[in-house]
Structures are given as structure tokens and as C-alpha cells.
Specification:
The complex is a heterodimer of chains A (about 80) and B (about 375). Chain A has helices at about 10-15, 30-40, and strands spanning about 1-5, 20-25, 25-30, 50, 55, 60-65, 65-70. By secondary structure, chain A is α+β, with helices and mostly antiparallel strands. Chain B is built from 15 helices and 13 strands. In chain B, strands 3-2-1-4-5-6-7-8 form an 8-stranded mixed β-sheet, sandwiched between helices. Chain B has a 5-stranded parallel β-sheet with strand order 9-13-12-10-11. The termini of chain B are far apart. Classes of the chains: A alpha+beta (about 80), B alpha/beta (about 375). The interface of A and B includes residues 8, 9, 46, 56 and 72 of A.
Chain lengths: ~80, ~375
């Protein structure tokens, strides 16, 4: 399946991209995150939540269809 | 009739009308922080005729704030932000009540303060305050209009509203201390908090006017460089909310700095250090060539740059005392050690220079 991955805030800095396409078999969110951290080690030290098709999900959620994934970090500034 | 003229352009909107204006005049909104986000929030709420506005901020106006904190000018640099904002807003709209609290929001004052208002707006700039604000909103049952920024991006949401999710349903745990930098460290484009703060003010007005499409249970992400925004649904996590409610009883004693990984750095005098010379492990984090050498404390010499690499050679369980030349690098070293699980660690105030001076005095 094809996934669009979107990186926000400091995550886009850690990966040096804001968006990419990925071909991947069905997987859980945590498997996907593991794969992304392997690809971008700088993500490992970051905190973020994952949204699948604009819906925040937890790490055992299974992605089994073409989807848009967003990695959302917390911001502190004001 | 003067007030009707003031609010005429919004009263003629069919969604607002006279009755909507009365709702605005009767509402009470507390704004946490009168900085980049707080300024536009306060400006629009005061202009719209929110009847009672509270402003809490302990900080002083600095010249470096003026590019984005648009309530202030050169004449109030050095003044408290809550007081400076109040005096500016009293000119903007003299027929509303403005309460300034020139103090820090703490677990001691939050509950009684929040109880006096209908809606809380978070314009703070750090995670300790953000979790404190969320939890106090959950405990007092107040809706929270949230906004936060990072460089060119911002987040907006409404939490704890009509049985919706809370900030902890989105981010249950604070990030590791230091992993998310502040505006002071990395900079911010002045317009961004203007946009995000205006969106927060807009959510407040929608809540007060009971309009639809409040950002309840939704996180809006906005990027001012690409001018793109996306909205994400946040599920309500009941266990996160009940966890906060169990804090209610002892709320005053919760340490949010500790929760957010901000540990206090213990500083000791040379005299105190010599009292434990036989029990504690001492670390000299200066470079090898730096003088005077402090042999009497029998320190392990590991320069600050090498500390991380050699940390496994040190005993976590032992009382650890760090020093450098003047007490600046040793403070950094304490942070590094604390982050690696050293719980009993302190540094010597003013470093080797103070130790040498103490030794000379003792000899005389």
C-alpha cells in the first residue's frame, strides 16, 4: 500500500523533509514508527503522536490501506 | 448607547445581535500569559466586549518582545506584562473589567483563580505551565482554549469542552526536558503568534456565543510559510482525565517542573563539600590544563565535553559533587548527570576559584 507521511515542526527538521511517499505492507503504527526511526535516527529522541487520515491513533492501530500519516510533535512556545 | 455604537459592527451580524453582545458582556475569560499569544487574544477579547478579562503574567516587557507582543511599546519596557496589558486595554475598551495578576501561575493560586472565570486561554510558553493549566481546567471544569507555536508553525485546539478530550488526551506525557526548544532559543516570526492568538480569540467568542464548529476535539496545525492548515481529530481518553481528577485532592503539592523533567540544580559551598570529602565522588569538569588543581578533594577529572562518554565509569548511587573553574560548566554537568539517573548530585558554587580561596583562608 502507498502511504503519504507528513512531518510537522521539529520532526521536519529531524528528517529534512516535510512530506514523502512510502510503499509498505500492512503494519501497525509502532512498526511504521520503528521503520521511520531506522531511516531517520534523529526522530528517536523526539516526542510525537501519529494521525492516520487526520485521526489520532495509538501505537497498536493497524494501517491496512492507502493512507495519509501525520507525525505531530508538541509545541511549547507562546 | 455608546456601547452599542462600539459593538455595532458585530451586533448587526445575525449570529450575534443584541443577545450575543449581552453574552459577551456577561462572560469572564482568564488569559494565561500576556506574551506573543496572549497579546492578540487580549486585544480581540477586550475589543469585542468580553465583560471581565483576567491577565496573569509575572514577566516583564523586554525590547526583544516588541516584534510580536503588539500591546506593548517602548514606553513600557521593564514593566510587568499583566499591568502593562491592563493599562493598554483600558484605553482600548474602558467599559469592561480587567483584572491584572502580576504573578506566576502556581498550583497554589490556579484553582481559586480559574474558579472565578468561565473560559481559560493558554498563552504560556512552557510545558510545566501547560500541564498545570490543563489539569486545573479539568479539576475546575473549565473549557481550555489552547494555542502553541514553534518557529513558523502553530497549534490551536479547545480542550475540556462539552465532554471532549483534554490536553493530556493529546499528549499524555511531557516531552523529555530540553527536546522542544522555546521561542527565546530558536526564534519566531512575529506574525505567527498573531495568527494563532487571533484564532484562539475566535474560539473564545464562538464558545461564548454558543456557535457551531468550535475546535472541540480537533487539533488545528497551521504553517505560516506554506499557508497550509490541517485539522486532526483527538479522541477522548477517559483514563487520562480520571488520572487528573485524582490529583485534585493534593493539587497544591504537585510539582509540574519535576513532572516535566526540570529538576532543581543543587548548589553547595566549598565548606559543605569538604565536610563530605571522604564519602562523595568529586568530578572536576575542567580541561586538564586549567589551574589551580584541587587535589584535596581527590576529584576524577573528566572535561565537560567528555562527560557523556565516560558517564558509565561513574557510580550513580554515590553522592556526586561537580566543580569547574567558576560554576557555569559544572551546572551543565549536573544537568547531564541528572538526565542519566544521578539523583544525588550537586555542584560547587563559583568552582575551583572559590575552593582555592576557602583553602587559603582555612590555612591562615
Amino acid at each position: 500500500m502507498q502511504l503519504t507521511i507528513k512531518y510537522f515542526g521539529m520532526l521536519a527538521e529531524a528528517t529534512s523533509i516535510t512530506e514523502e511517499q512510502l510503499q509498505i505492507d500492512n503494519c501497525s503504527v509502532s512498526e511504521l514508527v520503528e521503520k521511520l526511526i531506522h531511516q531517520y535516527p534523529a526522530l528517536d529522541k523526539k516526542d510525537f503522536k501519529v494521525a492516520v487520515n487526520q485521526q489520532l491513533v495509538n501505537h497498536n492501530y493497524i494501517i491496512n490501506n492507502k493512507a495519509e500519516i501525520a507525525l505531530l510533535p508538541p509545541f511549547a512556545g507562546g | 448607547m455608546a456601547s452599542n455604537n462600539r459593538y455595532n459592527r458585530q451586533i448587526i451580524l445575525p449570529e450575534i445581535g443584541e443577545s450575543g453582545q449581552q453574552k459577551l458582556n456577561a462572560s469572564k475569560v482568564l488569559v494565561i500569559g500576556a506574551g506573543g499569544l496572549g497579546c492578540p487574544v487580549l486585544q480581540y477579547l477586550a475589543a469585542a466586549g468580553i465583560g471581565t478579562i483576567g491577565i496573569i503574567d509575572f514577566d516583564l516587557v523586554d525590547t526583544s518582545n516588541l516584534h510580536r507582543q503588539i500591546l506593548y511599546g517602548d514606553s513600557v519596557v521593564g514593566k510587568n506584562k499583566a499591568l502593562a496589558a491592563k493599562s493598554r486595554l483600558e484605553d482600548l475598551n474602558p467599559i469592561i473589567n480587567i483584572n491584572a495578576y502580576p504573578e506566576k501561575l502556581t498550583t497554589e493560586n490556579a484553582i481559586s483563580l480559574f474558579s472565578q472565570y468561565d473560559i481559560i486561554v493558554d498563552g504560556s510558553d512552557n510545558f510545566s505551565t501547560r500541564y498545570l493549566v490543563n489539569d486545573a481546567c479539568v479539576i475546575t471544569g473549565k473549557p481550555l482554549v489552547y494555542g502553541a507555536i514553534f518557529k513558523y508553525e502553530g497549534q490551536v485546539s479547545v480542550f475540556n469542552y462539552k465532554n471532549g478530550p483534554t490536553y493530556r488526551c493529546l499528549f499524555p506525557e511531557p516531552p523529555k526536558s530540553g527536546s522542544v526548544p522555546s521561542c527565546a532559543e530558536i526564534g519566531v516570526l512575529g506574525v505567527l503568534p498573531g495568527v494563532i492568538g487571533s484564532m484562539q480569540a475566535n474560539e473564545v467568542l464562538k464558545i461564548v456565543l454558543n456557535l457551531d464548529h468550535v475546535l472541540n476535539g480537533k487539533l488545528l496545525m497551521y504553517d505560516c510559510l506554506t499557508t497550509q492548515s490541517s485539522t486532526f481529530s483527538i479522541p477522548r481518553v477517559a483514563s487520562e482525565i480520571s488520572k487528573v481528577l485524582t490529583l485534585a485532592q493534593d493539587f497544591e503539592t504537585v510539582d509540574y517542573n519535576l513532572f516535566c523533567g526540570i529538576q532543581k540544580i543543587k548548589e553547595i559551598s566549598p565548606e559543605t563539600a569538604f565536610q563530605v570529602v571522604n564519602e562523595a565522588q568529586f568530578i572536576d569538569v575542567r580541561e586538564v590544563h586549567e589551574q589551580p588543581k584541587i587535589n584535596s578533594l581527590k576529584p576524577v577529572c573528566i572535561s565537560l565535553d567528555d562527560l557523556q562518554k565516560q558517564i558509565n565509569n561513574l557510580d550513580k548511587e554515590k553522592e556526586t559533587i561537580v566543580f569547574c573553574q567558576s560554576g557555569i560548566r559544572s551546572k551543565k554537568a549536573v544537568e547531564i548527570l541528572q538526565n542519566h539517573g544521578f539523583n544525588n548530585v550537586s555542584h560547587i558554587k563559583k568552582g575551583a576559584l572559590a575552593i582555592a580561596e576557602y583553602q587559603t583562608l582555612k590555612e591562615v
